[in-house]
Structures are given as C-alpha cells and as structure tokens.
Automatic annotation (TrEMBL):
<feature type="binding site">
    <location>
        <position position="218"/>
    </location>
    <ligand>
        <name>pyridoxal 5'-phosphate</name>
    </ligand>
</feature>
<feature type="binding site">
    <location>
        <position position="302"/>
    </location>
    <ligand>
        <name>substrate</name>
    </ligand>
</feature>
<comment type="pathway">
    <text>Amino-acid biosynthesis; L-lysine biosynthesis via DAP pathway; L-lysine from DL-2,6-diaminopimelate: step 1/1.</text>
</comment>
<dbReference type="InterPro" id="IPR029066">
    <property type="entry name" value="PLP-binding_barrel"/>
</dbReference>
<dbReference type="GO" id="GO:0030170">
    <property type="term" value="F:pyridoxal phosphate binding"/>
</dbReference>
<dbReference type="InterPro" id="IPR022643">
    <property type="entry name" value="De-COase2_C"/>
</dbReference>
<feature type="domain" description="Orn/DAP/Arg decarboxylase 2 C-terminal">
    <location>
        <begin position="18"/>
        <end position="354"/>
    </location>
</feature>
<comment type="similarity">
    <text>Belongs to the Orn/Lys/Arg decarboxylase class-II family. LysA subfamily.</text>
</comment>
<dbReference type="InterPro" id="IPR002986">
    <property type="entry name" value="DAP_deCOOHase_LysA"/>
</dbReference>
<feature type="active site" description="Proton donor">
    <location>
        <position position="328"/>
    </location>
</feature>
<comment type="function">
    <text>Specifically catalyzes the decarboxylation of meso-diaminopimelate (meso-DAP) to L-lysine.</text>
</comment>
<keyword id="KW-0210">Decarboxylase</keyword>
<keyword id="KW-0457">Lysine biosynthesis</keyword>
<dbReference type="InterPro" id="IPR022644">
    <property type="entry name" value="De-COase2_N"/>
</dbReference>
<keyword id="KW-0456">Lyase</keyword>
<feature type="binding site">
    <location>
        <position position="356"/>
    </location>
    <ligand>
        <name>pyridoxal 5'-phosphate</name>
    </ligand>
</feature>
<keyword id="KW-0663">Pyridoxal phosphate</keyword>
Length: 410
C-alpha cells in the first residue's frame, strides 16, 4: 500500500482506523513456507492473539494455515471462521481444568504446560492425546514481558521436571502426541534458538507416539530502516536439516510446527490517526492526534518503536515532533521524531500496526475502539465497524440507588 491508498482509507472510513494489506500477509506466509520447503510435513498455526479479526482468520484458512489459540474464545472464533478444529492448537496458561475440558470437547489439539493439570486431565481423559509445553530455560525475546522460556517464567514444564512428566504419562496411560516450546518474541540470535531446539529434540526422543514437534515462534520483524530481524531463510536451512535427521533417528516422519503471529501480520498493518493540534512548548513541538494508548499501547507498554509518516505531506521538510495522544495521562507514541512537517488535520500513518495493536485496544477514557479495514485487490474492505456509544453502554446495567438522606445532606 502507498500513501495515496492509505489516505483514501482515511477519507472513506475516518480516523483513527487500522488498515491491513492482504498481499503483505500472503507474502510473509509464503516466505515462511518456502524457508522450510525441505520439510515434508510443515504445519503453520497462525497466532490468533496477534490479530483476531474473523476476516483475517478466514484469509489464513484460505492459505492453508491452522491456528494457535490461547483461550476458549479464540478457539470459538477460529471455528466460526471455518477452520477445522483438528488444525487448531490450544495453548493456555493458568486456566481451569474445566476450560481445557471444554476446548478438548471441540476436537482441538490440547497443549498443557503444567504438571498439575496434566495429571488431572490424564486421569479423567486418558484417551485424549495431548501436547506438552516444555520450558527449555533459554532466554530469548526483545523485552522481559515477552521472554517466556527462561527459568523464572510462568510458562511451560521445566526440563528438570521431565522425570515427573514421564511418570504422570505412565501412571495415567495418556498419550503425548506433541512437544512444544516458545522461548519468546523478537528472536535475534538464531544460534540461541537452535540451542533451545536441541533441548526440545532431546526431550521429544523420550516420547514414542509423537505426531509433531512445535517450535513456537517469536521471529523478529524490522521496525525501521536497517533494523535487525530474524533471518528466516537461514533458520529454515539449518533447522530443516536437523529436523529431518531427527525424524530418521525417531523412526518416522512427524510434522514440524510453528506458531507465528507478528511475523505474518505486523508489517501488513498501518494505523492512521489525524492530527488535532500542534502545540509548541519551551522544549518541544507536540503533534496531538485523535487517538492514544487505548488504541496503540505498545510504545507505552513495551517501549516499542513504530515508524510514523505524515502521509498528508510526505515530501515536506523534516522537523522534530513528539507525537502524543488524547488520553488523560502521559500518552506518548514517539519523542523527538523526525517527521515531514505536520499541520493540524494531517493524517499520520503508524507502521508495524498489524500485530498486538487492535487486539490490545481498550475503551479507556470511554473512547471508542477504531474501525478495521482490509486492503485487497486495490480495494478497502471494512472488516470491523467503529464502535459507538451504544457499544460502550451495551453490557452496562443501570440500578436505582437510594442514598441515606443524612449522607446526601452531609
């Protein structure tokens, strides 16, 4: 998509608005499958939590992908999108046994990440095959909040607890048909990731009924020019060969699975916001937009970088701006960023807005969540309407309260 296309979306659907380019999603998916073309059985499960709009899920279904889900609601969304339950893997954390049983009844692949639930589930449902999530105690990821494979993480069954895991499997008679890991997001060092895969291969060899090994994801995408990202082609070359070797030693061909989210949709997304006010202070120039961290929380939560372009004046002279939102507390998208000269009414486009942006949006300050648009074949397709006050009030219940007259007078 170019600036002209984005401006067209803003004019047609207003702002703020999220826009996703279908061609970029398809290109990223094909790039990943090509990198692992030497693997006979490759499974790609799109991580629904990255961007859960049902039209996006239908697009991935058309591409042949399955889904990676972390809640019963995401499972229901996937089924509503027409995805075969057998192509959905469910990897929750800290949920009740009842929720896991509910999802298992839908025919979805269950992935369990703690010994307590594994033992309870195996005792009650020994004939339901499960995958087990292993914590390899390998630190990976670009931020402490998204590094999930280290020793202090709440995720996964520790590799030091494998003997306990094997005892539970033997005692319950349950079948483990997959092993899984996820070290964290924004993986830069392929060597570290490959080290973790060796731990997973060693663990996988202890189970005789495997159908797949799931290596999670966390592939880093570039956020600005010259940014470092995961070399997916190099990883594909190295891991494919090692995986095929493992299959030979294991005695049968099993599937290699991944669960990419950000890699597939981050670069496809743009977030468009209109500039409400230019405010000059003694130290900076603020560009205040008609949005805030209620719509795009990643810069405030993770310190994440999102490129910002003034698509209303792309050829203008660069000036320094701090781009801020309208939320009633510190609400900063970027500080002292060089952007082509901004005027009130201009449209700013935030890049890398496809993953974990709309899906983390809220109604903070009672603001409406934005519309979502899918750009496909040169056309803008509305895939989620902008919220209204009716949506804000929909589930609220008004009650009549009689206050004590003494309290009222006081």
């Amino acid at each position: 998509m170019n600036a002209k296309d984005l401006l067209h979306v803003a004019q047609e659907h207003g702002s703020p608005v999220y826009v996703y380019d279908a061609d970029t999603i398809v290109s990223q998916y094909e790039r990943l499958t090509s990198a692992f073309a030497k693997v006979e059985n490759l499974r790609i499960h799109y991580a629904v939590k990255a961007l859960s709009n049902i039209s996006i899920l239908k697009l991935f279904k058309q591409l042949g992908a399955g889904l990676d889900t972390v809640s019963s609601q995401e499972v229901q969304l996937g089924i509503a999108a027409g995805v075969d339950p057998s192509k959905i893997i469910y990897t929750p954390n800290g949920v009740s046994l009842e929720e896991i049983e509910k999802v298992a009844s839908m025919g979805v692949q269950i992935n369990i990440d703690n010994l307590s639930i594994l033992e309870q589930f195996g005792a009650k449902h020994p004939k339901v095959p499960v995958c087990v999530r292993i914590n390899p105690h390998v630190m990976a990821g670009g931020n402490a909040n998204i590094s999930v494979g280290h020793i202090d993480s709440k995720f996964g069954i520790s590799i030091h607890q494998i003997p306990h895991l094997l005892r539970i499997v033997e005692n319950t008679g349950m079948t483990v048909n997959g092993v899984h890991m996820h070290t964290g997001s924004d993986i830069l060092d392929i060597g570290v990731f490959l080290y973790a895969t060796e731990i997973l291969f060693e663990t996988a060899a202890k189970f005789k009924d495997l159908e797949f090994i799931d290596f999670g994801s966390g592939f880093k995408v570039p956020y600005k020019e010259g940014d470092v990202s995961t070399d997916i082609e190099d990883l594909g070359e190295q891991l494919s060969g090692r995986f095929n070797e493992f299959c030979k030693s294991y005695g049968k061909d099993i599937a290699l699975a991944f669960e990419p989210g950000k890699f597939l949709v981050s670069e496809a997304g743009h977030f468009l916001a209109q500039v409400n006010v230019i405010k000059q202070t003694t130290s900076t120039v603020f560009a205040g937009v008609d949005s805030g961290f209620n719509h795009l929380i990643r810069p405030m939560l993770y310190g994440s970088y999102h490129g910002i372009k003034n698509i209303s004046n792309p050829e203008g002279k660069n000036r320094f701006y701090s781009v801020v939102g309208y939320i009633c507390e510190t609400d900063t998208f970027a500080q002292n960023r060089q952007i082509s000269e901004i005027s009130e009414g201009d449209i700013l486009a935030f890049s890398n807005a496809g993953a974990y942006c709309y899906s983390m949006a809220s109604n903070y300050n009672s603001r409406y969540r934005p519309a979502e648009v899918l750009w496909h074949n040169g056309q803008a397709h509305l895939i989620r309407e902008r919220e209204t006050m009716e949506d804000i009030l929909k589930n609220q219940v008004e009650v009549e309260l009689e206050l004590n007259s003494d309290l009222v007078e006081a």
